[in-house]
Structure formats: C-alpha cells, structure tokens
Amino acid sequence: MTLRSTLLLASTMLAVAGQAVAATGTFPSKSTTVTTNAIFGGGASLPAPYLRQASDCWGDKIDLAFRGVAATTTIFDFNYAGVPAFNCATTQVSPVGQAVSYISTGSGRGILGYFAHSPFYVDPIGKTGDSWLGSGTGPAPTVYATKVNFGASEAGLPQHDANDGGDIDTYNGTSVDGLSNPVSRYVIQSGVAIEIPNTATSPAPFTASPGVTLPGTVNTTPFAQPLATYGHAIQIPLLVAIPTVSFSSVYKKVASSTGKVTSYKFLQATATQKLRLSNKQLCAIFSGTVSDWNQLTGIDSTNPISKATADTAAFSVPLQIVGRSDGSGTTSIFYRHLEKICGAGNAYTVDANTAGGNAPTTLPSALQGPTYDKTQPNVAVGGEVTTKFTRADGNDGVAKYLSFTAVPTANNTLVQGRIGYVGNDYVLPYVLKNGQNTYGLFSAALQNSKNAYVAATPAAALLAFAAVQAPQTTSGAAPYYYTPGLNGDRSNPATNATTYAWVSAANIASPLADPTATGSYPLVGTTNGLFYQCYADTTETTIVQNFLSWYYSNGVVNDKSKGILAINGFAPVTPQYQSAIQQTFLLNNYPLKTGGTATPLNLDIQQAGSTFTAECPTGVTGA
C-alpha cells in the first residue's frame, strides 16, 4: 500500500474518528529511565518482547513500552546456553550508557512513524490524528522520546504501485497522489507530517477531528522528501516471523453441584498430536462460512475434527474467529496466505491494481465484527457474530481473548470455541520458555503445498525461508553481488525496478505466500527493520551501526536452537542473509563474484555530513 493510502486508512486502521490522542504534551526528549545515549523506535507487536530482549543483551536494560499504556513491562534477561555462553543479566555488549528503546505499536503505526520521522502524524484527508502514545489519559511511557530512529513491520513496503506510486517511490519523491500530482514534499502541521503534491503552493487548511488534540505547535513549512533529507530507505528482515492458527484445547467446562469442574478437549489437541486444519477448512473458518466446529468435518471428511471421547454430549461448539483490530503486519502475512490458497473470489482476494496487489494490514471489512477491550476481563464481546472476526489490539489482545479462563458456577456448563491467528511465542510449547502468558493456547498443524500437515516450529519456518535468497546477480558462484532493489540506489537505477529486493512481497507472488519446500510450515513472513541511511547525531549513528552489526553476527540472537529467536518460537534469517546485510548496509563491501571486481554500492548506514559523501551527500541532513 502507498503512504497516502496508508494515511487514508488511518481513521479505521489506527485511530477511529473522534478518538482523542492523549493531550499530555510531547514525550520527554530523553526519559529519566533511559540512558542519555539511545535510539528510539517502534512498530510490530509480534517481535516486540524479543527485540527488547536482544536490545537488553546489547546495551543498557530498559523496559518495553506499549502504545496506549503508561506502565511499561520489564522483560526478563536472556541466558544464552550456547558456545560461548552469554548471560545477559550480568553482561552487555555495548559500553555502559548506550541503549535501544522500543515501543510496541503494531506494524501500521510503525510504518507511519517511520515516514513521518515522528511518533505524531495525521491522515491528511480524514484529519484524524494519531500517535505512538495512544488515547490514554495517563502520562507518556517513560521510555520513549519524540524522535523516531527506526521502525519495524511485518508488512513489507513496496517500491512501485500501478495505481498510486509505491511507498518507496513516495519516500524517494517519485510517486503521485490520487490526483496524479507528484508528491515529494511534506508539511508539519500541529507537530505531524503529511504529504502534499508538488503543485501545491501551500498546504491545505488543517483542522483536527472533533476531540483530537495534537501535540506540538503549528508549522506549515514544507520540508524535502525523505530521500533527500535522510538518505535511502533501508528495509531489511530482522527475523523469520511465524504466525499460528491458535485456539484453546478446552472447548467445554462442566461444573458439578459441588463446583468441581470437568474440562473437555478437542481429541487431536494434545501435547503429542496437533489438531490439523486442511486448506479447505482453514479457508472456510476464516471466510466466515462455518459457524460451528462440527461443520469442519463436512468441509473436509478426510481430516475430521472431533471431541474427546469422554464427552458424551452431541458435538456442537460455536466457532468464533478472532483477529487483529490494529494495523498489523501479522494480519498481512495471514491475509497473503489465505489469498494464495483459497482460490478466486474468496474474502481475501486483492485487486492487482490496488496498492500493487499487496495484502493489507487490516482484515476484510465484510468480516470485521466488534472489538474486544484487552484491558477488561475476558468475557464475550457484545454484538459478537460467529461468522465475523471479534478483533483485539496486538498479539497479546488476541491471545487473551482466545484463552478459556472463565469458570462455570455449580451445575452450569460453559462452551467456548474461539480460533484466531497469533505469534508462535504465545502458544505452547514456546510460551513455557518466555513467560508471555498462562493462556494455555495450542496451535494447529497446517496443510502445506506438498499436502503435508506441518506444525509451527522454527525449523519448519526456516525450510520455507531458505528458498528466499538475499538480492544477488543471476550468475556466478557465492559470494554474491548484492543488488539494492527497493533501497533506491542512485548509482544503478536499473535495479530499482526490483519491487521487493530485501523483503518478501506482501502478495501472492512471494515465495513465502505458500512455500514449496518439503517440510515447510506454510504461514511464514518476516519482521522487517526500517532504518534511514543517514543519521544526524554521531552517537545515534554509532548505536545503529554497532547494534545491527552485533544483532546479525552472534549466537545469542541467531543460534537456530538456543538463541533468543528460536527459544521464543521464531527463527533467524539465514547466514546468507546475515552476511548480505552486513556487507551491504554496514561494511559497504560489495562481495566479489569469482573473477569479478568489487564495486561498493554506497548503501551503508552513515552519519550525515561525514566524509562518506556518496552515502550522505551535501544536503542530506540525516534523521
């Protein structure tokens, strides 16, 4: 989707019209709980605790912040049992006084904050304001600042869009708006950034929606498009993301006259045998065509779904689907897979001419039901419909609503059959290792393109991701030439036609939409880091460079069985990807093809105004 279309969706995807952005002033420029030298970012909720955990191994330990919640969360220290061992509770990589801060906002807000270079932004048409702070009335999270150094999202940013210019085209100043006017400037209005056409001599009048208070002062001075201000957009995968189709294994609780509770489970939902869902069943469930678990066997009789044999009652369990209410990269991965496997005319079909055919970060409007407030006890939401999604904010909100924590009173029975999509870290067995929750959720084994049922594991996800190589020339043995693709290399415009060079497309053209490798788990994507090439502050530049260099080169994060990602149910990118990212964006080494000549791409992250003028030339002030 384009930046303009993203902003136009802000009123539904990010801030409902009339929602008040907290009028508590701006975030503190540096928190009293954060060391003086820090970089600040936010976005995707799926990897948030583990980006925090990795950051606490590298630098000073700080809490994880969540949008809309003043209180922060302390993430426990990781103890790496590999070789060499590394206990993050007692050791850190960076000098004392350096840190990486992160606020979990959801991918949609992470993208918007990255483009605006600010946690405050606005939909220029709907005039609906939003921020990384949220709508609460309490103070800003104490670990956050007004500046955005990076973002994170599972929804990849496209370079081109047949209709309206891609996000990277917009970043580079080559896109057009909905009226075919080139867009290459922004204005700051009430402390937020909005795009304006080149043809406009002054920004349109701005009035906030009723009830919306935006921090900052009014400044209508246009500023240059991001490429000329911050250098190239750097979009690289941080990890292999593994969404799961999750549910509580318990579907019924019966209380005796004395209050003793007997629980009944789906027969296949045990520690050793996964409940299996075929593609037919998966599509039927999440397109809203079934309303009871007992209908799934009729959808695919070769893969029956049944109750525990001890339950003598008729097998009837209302099936309630649950998904995300916020702009979510997890949703885009889920959406992309269903679009691929469910066939023409399904609820997840995307017009190829709309936003480049990319899966959106929100669920189909026809399937959206009421929203669950995750701050409230887990009770059924009013107006809930079995054939529409009950939606919740963040992976944590979905997990909380999927759980079956309610207890029946004496002589009563409760039946609950919710199913939804959530990160692998929120389900068994991985949740036992990270202490995320005690919701007791299981995940289903899904049918892959080889017609095998595969459970969600880091190893199975790596089999899927291994087919995706970092950008390279089409000939020659490793090591490869790496091409910049969507990162906007000025020296080689021909490569800009490569829509997704470093991240996987959010559409069915991606090899991750339905992986073909034997043994691969089919619901896979990446969490992508969004960085600027040029940073204005010397210390911030150093922190970005050093953190990424460590992140992609050590076992604490990247060990495939003992690292932070694997322990929590995710997977690191392949060694080939790790090397490509370091060589291209950190070292500026263009690896030699056998008999070839090294030609630096000049895409490495640098400080603006430094001697490396090819990366950050005169006029690029830096982020």
Architecture overview:
- This protein is an alpha/beta fold and 623 residues long.
- The chain contains 16 helices and 29 strands.
- A 7-stranded mixed sheet has the order 3-2-6-1-9-27-14. The protein has a 6-stranded mixed sheet with strand order 20-21-19-23-15-24. Strands 10, 11, 12 and 13 form a 4-stranded antiparallel sheet that branches.
- The two termini are 23 Å apart.
Topology, element by element:
Layout: H1 3-8, H2 10-13, E1 37-43, H3 48-58, E2 64-66, E3 69-73, E4 79-80, E5 86-87, E6 98-104, H4 107-116, E7 120-122, E8 129-131, E9 150-153, H5 167-172, E10 175-176, E11 182-189, E12 192-197, E13 222-224, H6 226-230, E14 233-241, E15 243-248, E16 250-255, E17 261-265, E18 276-277, H7 279-286, H8 296-299, E19 320-324, H9 329-341, E20 368-372, E21 389-392, H10 394-402, E22 413-415, E23 418-423, H11 431-434, E24 441-443, E25 445-447, E26 453-454, H12 458-465, E27 525-532, E28 534-535, H13 538-551, H14 555-558, H15 564-567, H16 575-586, E29 606-607
Parallel strand pairs: 1-6, 1-9, 2-6, 18-25, 19-21, 19-23, 20-21, 28-29
Antiparallel strand pairs: 2-3, 4-5, 7-8, 9-27, 10-11, 11-12, 11-13, 14-27, 15-23, 15-24, 16-17, 16-22, 25-26
Q: For the residues shown, what is the average pLDDT?
A: 76
Fraction of residues in helix: 10-25%
Query: Could you tell me the radius of gyration in angstroms?
Result: 24 Å
What share of residues are in beta strands? 15-25%
Q: Span between N and C termini?
A: 23 Å
Largest sheet geometry: 7 strands, mixed
- The 3D shape can be described as globular
**Uncertain spans:** 1-32, 123-128, 135-139, 183-194, 197-224, 473-499, 592-596
**Number of DSSP helices?**
16
Annotation, overall tally of beta strands: 29
Strand-pairing-aware structural class: alpha/beta
Across the major sheet, the strand order is 3-2-6-1-9-27-14
